[in-house]
Amino acid sequence: MITVPLSALEVAMVQAGARAADTLRDTTEFALRLEDLGYLRLWYAEHHHSPAIGAFPPVVLTAHAAALTSSIRLGSGGVLAPNHAPIMLAEQFGTLSALHAGRIDLGMGRGPGTFDDSTARALRRGAGPTTDAEYRDDVSSTLGFLVDEVALGPLPEPWLLSSSTAGAALAAELGLPIAFAHHIRPDNTLAALSHYRERFSPSRWCERPRVLICVETVCAETEEEAARLAGPMDVVKAGLLKGRGDIPFPTPEEAATHSFTAEEAQALTAFRAQQAHGSPETVAKHLTDLVDLTGADELMLVTPIYALADRLRSYELVRQHVMMPTASWQ
């Protein structure tokens, strides 16, 4: 039985043959339903120039959802700090927090949000990949502007997104809660969290280490149906294994006819073993085991399922099979 709060990550997958406007419509319904189900928070990810993922700014989706909901926490998971001027991030999320006090999160990450080098350079006005020192300065400056420049009222809750020990070290140094991307780099999870907890320095933002684990979760009434629903994302991941970020998000029927190489099938099987796919009972056990293994304070579920109804059903089934308390820091 899960005994930590559950949250959700919205990646805004664009269905093959659909319009981006259709995906935006779905994100609205998704937010309303997640609030009804009692999920603690809903975050939006930043992506660019991908046929499978909508290029919808997290700050815009956060503002839209916050205006339509009343209790669920909302924010970025995350905005990619090197793509934005720190003072602008502080002003945007500081304003949101003033308008929706106690409900706004500012999750910051490092990646470019695209697999295309020209797009990455366009986002950064021609600059190349950020260095460790530059990233630290971006995050620190954003936090400083939140306090010193914005001062609109209640501040957003800052989080640092990480998929590595280096990111965990920065979160520990700055005294920020960490959101670890187990759904991207599961092999890094335990070492990074150990590093974070050992080196954590309390700050105005966080008095003790706080760990959120993001895990890919695909839940259906049967194991077979869950495997079918996971098929489209498997096709996208197989493309990523080849260094390709231009693979559309196919239908489950199209995915069922896709041929994977032996190496791809092996990699996908290994990945799924560290996530939470299957029937409600199977998923509940995977999530419980992950909490026990990592000591997570919270789980964030990312569910890349093609149809909105099936995706919502996954979140419903998980919610029915857990005992979700209020977060201890609320």
Would you kindly provide a brief summary of this structure?
The protein has helices spanning 20-37, 58-68, 86-99, 117-123, 132-150, 165-174, 189-199, 223-241, 252-256, 262-273, 280-294, 308-320, and strands at 6-10, 41-44, 73-80, 104-109, 157-162, 178-180, 211-219, 276-278, 298-302.
Please give a structural write-up.
- The chain has an eight-stranded parallel β-barrel, surrounded by eight helices.
- By secondary structure, it is α/β, with parallel strands linked by helices.
- It has helices at 20-37, 58-68, 86-99, 117-123, 132-150, 165-174, 189-199, 223-241, 252-256, 262-273, 280-294, 308-320, and strands spanning 6-10, 41-44, 73-80, 104-109, 157-162, 178-180, 211-219, 276-278, 298-302.
- It contains twelve helices and nine strands.
- 47% of the residues lie in helices and 15% in strands.
- The mean pLDDT is 90.
What labels would you give this structure?
47% helix, alpha/beta, globular, 330 residues, single chain
Helix-strand blueprint:
Elements: E1 6-10, H1 20-37, E2 41-44, H2 58-68, E3 73-80, H3 86-99, E4 104-109, H4 117-123, H5 132-150, E5 157-162, H6 165-174, E6 178-180, H7 189-199, E7 211-219, H8 223-241, H9 252-256, H10 262-273, E8 276-278, H11 280-294, E9 298-302, H12 308-320
Parallel strand pairs: 1-2, 1-9, 2-3, 3-4, 4-5, 5-6, 6-7, 7-8, 7-9
Subunit organisation of the chains:
single chain
Biggest pleated-sheet summary: 8 strands, parallel, barrel
Helix content: 40-55%
Strand order of the largest sheet: 1-2-3-4-5-6-7-9
H/E element string? EHEHEHEHHEHEHEHHHEHEH
Q: SS-based structural class? A: alpha/beta
- The average pLDDT score comes to 90
Instruction: Give the beta-strand count.
Output: 9
Shape: globular
| Gyration radius, in Å | 19 Å
Low-confidence stretches: none
